[in-house]
Design goal:
The complex is a heterodimer. Chain A is built from ten helices and 44 strands. By secondary structure, chain A is mainly β. Chain B has one domain. The chains are: A mainly beta, B alpha+beta.
């Protein structure tokens, strides 16, 4: 029962043939030796009902064996100011909103040998040259305090106070005054929310919000205004000296500050209400590992799903990535759009390994594998956007610069691993395709899709930026053909803060199936975009794909039953060679093609009126529950045994520009393709759809 | 003290054993809802230790990694689910589950 003993990451999620990738590896195995192979991923581990793991080794000039070391991961966010004038007696003040006082020592300001912090009891303390004074009055969690400290290195005179903001609590000022050792060094670097660690990095991270730090010395006053530079990795100091600093490991910005009173909800309207930064000891943007070796991708490498397979003792660790066509590459007619943004949102998902009644929502025990267990043993690899930080606040950022534990063939049958079912079938069918990525779609827009006649999504394209949605809409408006091969797609808005390449930001606002809920006043991203469900933002998935998220359950899948519309002449091509009334009554996930997360047609939510619902699932289990955004208040009768709305709709419609959309409305659909050695009615249906969608003959919507 | 679940309802246990995934009778679903509450679920998970091989694990608080119950390896998810059901039955019914 071994876990992998080597892990790694790349700085990007996609590459082109011929490019060079820096591979960063940390070797946990005591031998410090490991092997590395480049593999093309064809099929993930599908369980006993699927074809199982398939990978092709690619010759890429890698060594037979490598030696390495365990590389530290400097987790935890803070701010650092690297230049300061010479200092004499100092006064430090700031506003603090601690979220975990009393758990451990937490630094608010570290200045040379002077440290202003919360002691282990949660009281404000000041130390100089390792001696400490404390107010001995623990702070209340999630309440604002003005914290002030003074120290004179020539005399050792020191004081520290904490003053709660007025409120209903019986909370009082804390203060103490005493002598600390004289001569403590005061100077740069100055850190907010952590102390420097010997050998690099930081320790004693602060959990909570800090605001408006001020440093007074001699007659100089330095003031940092965290309301400035929102969406950047910079903190701005507003005196004439401009003692700006930088943020490390992406603490959360665009959060409510001490002044916030509910009168403003968009930080751009009055940034002074958002002059705080929320720091966490488990934030991680960049693991900052040293490159271990360079991988030169062969010039003739086929576009597809790939991984660097690292192995020491124990099972392998796969560093997954996509090879997409370069700017001058000849394109296939069909593109598979790999959901790299959704993969990133789910990366390092720990929630299944934390206590709680998850089965009430899933209908089965949560499942993990030994690679997930490795993740659980290494909190420093950061969280997913499904997790909460140690202080209980939701994780809003997902970075690519760290080991990603879900870009691989095994583990949960989901995302990357599930999408390989599509790749496996396309390869088996001999259909030529390119693989392109969400990240390229965001950057390049509709122009990327317009190079293809048809675009096929993966099984679960859940997270979309506005740019990505517009790109898909632009593709359809130009006559493109779109195959939505999954469920719960185009659901959450994500944004890309420009200061952090490849990283996404997410705010789970208002409504929806949420792993956590964004706090009031914080519904606008640091980019200035309003977060939440695209359904609540006026762009329901139904308008793009004809269907939208309706229910989920994780115990068993079921079949679709063809409707009368499947015999409509417009949809006849889809069911050529299919005599059965039931389709997809088999599959590697839950024995059916309709399962996991499913979508339904709803013209009130924008599904086109002329769309044909050609098949509908039925007989879903008790575990399938109507999603809460479809209800205005809770009620009985929302499970799959009682509620007729709990069903996956398979939809086809034509667009005015001669294109068309085919949507399966189910994540489990692609896991049925390999059934019976790829000879089944889901294969025939998918083959019919792909063939027609690659045929240049224009589609024609019906006359209204 | 009255047990949280009725130890006489072996019919529900048999229904679950025959079909742990998929549609259940309302009475079995009600029983499962009791077993799966936070205070009753024992924070169990299934851990794949090799393709097709599973062990039960327990999720632990404060970011600790799950504890693995490595003494019993199951050849299917269904067998692992059944073991979890039996553990919860024992805790809630106050006696071992023995199907005829």
């Amino acid at each position: 029962m071994k876990t992998p003993s080597v892990v790694g990451y790349l700085d990007r999620l996609f590459f082109h043939a011929g490019e060079k990738a820096a591979v960063r590896v940390s070797v946990l195995d005591p031998s410090r030796r490991y092997t590395a192979e480049l593999v093309r991923m064809v099929c993930g581990e599908t369980g006993p009902k699927g074809p199982g793991l398939k990978e092709e080794k690619i010759q890429a000039g890698l060594a037979a064996q490598y030696e390495g070391t365990e590389q530290p991961t400097p987790v935890g966010s803070y701010a650092i100011v690297e230049k300061l004038p010479s200092l004499r007696a100092v006064e430090l003040s700031l506003l603090a909103w601690p979220t975990l006082p009393g758990r451990c020592e937490q630094t608010m300001v570290h200045l040379g040998a002077l440290r202003l912090f919360l002691d282990a009891a949660g009281a404000v303390a000041l130390s100089a040259n390792a001696e400490t004074i404390s107010t001995d009055r623990p702070l209340r969690p999630c309440w604002w305090y003005r914290v002030t400290a003074r120290y004179d290195p020539s005399t050792g005179a020191a004081s520290v106070t904490s003053m709660p903001f007025a409120g209903p609590h019986n909370d009082r000022r804390g203060a103490t005054k005493a002598r600390l050792p004289r001569g403590a060094r005061l100077g740069a670097p100055m850190l907010f929310a952590a102390s420097p660690k010997a050998g690099g990095g930081a320790r004693d991270h602060f959990y909570g919000k800090l605001e408006a730090p001020v440093l007074r010395s001699n007659r100089d006053v330095a003031r940092w205004d965290f309301a400035r530079g929102m969406g950047t990795a910079r903190i701005e100091e507003i005196s004439r000296r401009r003692l700006h600093g930088r943020l490390v490991n992406v603490p959360k910005r665009a959060v409510t500050g001490s002044k916030w009173d509910g009168s403003v909800h968009d930080w751009r309207q009055d940034p002074s209400h958002y002059a705080a930064i929320h720091f966490h000891g488990d934030d991680l943007h960049d693991a900052r590992w040293m490159p271990s070796f360079a991988l030169k991708l062969p010039q003739d490498l086929k576009s597809g799903f790939y991984a660097i397979k690292l192995q020491a003792s124990g099972p392998p660790f796969y560093v997954g990535f996509i090879v997409s066509p370069g700017p001058r590459a000849k394109r296939a007619k069909l593109a598979v759009l790999a959901s790299t943004v959704t993969y990133l949102a789910y990366a390092n998902y720990r929630r299944r390994m934390t206590p709680g009644p998850l089965e009430l929502a899933m209908g089965a025990l949560p499942t993990v594998d030994m690679t997930d267990i490795l993740l659980a043993r290494h909190p420093e690899f950061g969280n997913s956007t499904y997790d909460v930080h140690r202080d209980g606040f939701g994780v809003s950022y997902a970075s690519i610069r760290r080991p990603l534990f879900n870009m691989r063939p095994g583990g949960r049958f989901w995302n990357f691993a599930m999408d390989l079912c599509l790749i496996d079938w396309l390869d088996h069918e001999g259909i030529d395709y390119d693989v392109i990525t969400d990240h390229e779609l965001h950057a390049q827009g509709a122009g990327l899709l317009k190079r293809y006649r048809a675009v096929m999504t993966g099984s679960h394209p859940e997270y979309y930026s506005l740019e990505m949605l517009k790109a898909c809409e632009g593709f359809l408006a130009a006559g493109g053909r779109f195959l939505y091969m999954g469920g719960n797609g185009f659901y959450w808005r994500v944004t890309f803060p420009g200061a952090y390449p490849g990283m996404i930001e997410l705010r789970r606002t208002e409504d929806g199936t949420r792993a956590w809920a964004e706090k009031p006043g914080q519904y606008y991203h640091s980019t200035g975009e309003y977060g939440g469900l695209w359904l609540r933002l006026g762009r329901p998935p139904n308008a793009l794909a004809g269907v939208g998220f309706i229910a989920q359950g994780f115990d068993a899948s079921t079949y679709y039953r063809r409707t009368a519309a499947s015999c409509d002449a417009r949809a006849a091509f889809l069911f050529e060679g299919i005599g059965e009334e039931l389709v997809g009554d088999f599959g590697a996930w839950g024995d059916g093609a309709a399962g996991l997360e499913i979508d339904a047609y709803d013209d009130k939510l924008g599904s086109p009126r002329h769309a044909l619902v050609v098949a509908t699932s039925e007989n879903h289990s008790n575990a399938f529950l109507l999603v809460n955004e479809e209800m205005t208040s809770n009620s009985h009768g929302v499970d799959g045994t009682l509620n007729a709305r709990v069903k996956a709709d398979m939809v086809f419609f034509e667009t005015p520009a001669g294109g068309a959309v085919f949507s399966t409305g189910s994540i489990a659909y692609v896991a049925s393709l390999a059934h019976n050695d790829y000879d089944n009615n889901i294969v025939r249906l998918t083959r019919n759809a792909v063939r027609r969608f690659l045929d240049p003959a224009p589609f024609k919507p019906p006359a209204s | 003290m009255t047990p949280a679940i009725d130890p006489r309802r072996l019919d529900l246990a048999a229904e679950y054993r025959a079909k742990p995934f998929g549609r259940h009778s309302p009475e079995l679903q009600a029983l499962l809802n009791v077993m799966r509450r936070a205070e009753n679920c024992q924070d169990l998970i299934l851990v794949s230790v090799a393709p097709g091989k599973w062990v039960l694990g327990q999720r632990l608080p404060d970011g600790q990694p799950p504890r693995l119950f490595a003494d019993r390896v199951f050849d299917s998810l269904e067998d692992g689910e059944w073991e979890a059901f039996k553990r919860r039955w024992r805790a809630l019914a106050g006696e071992e589950l023995k199907l005829p």
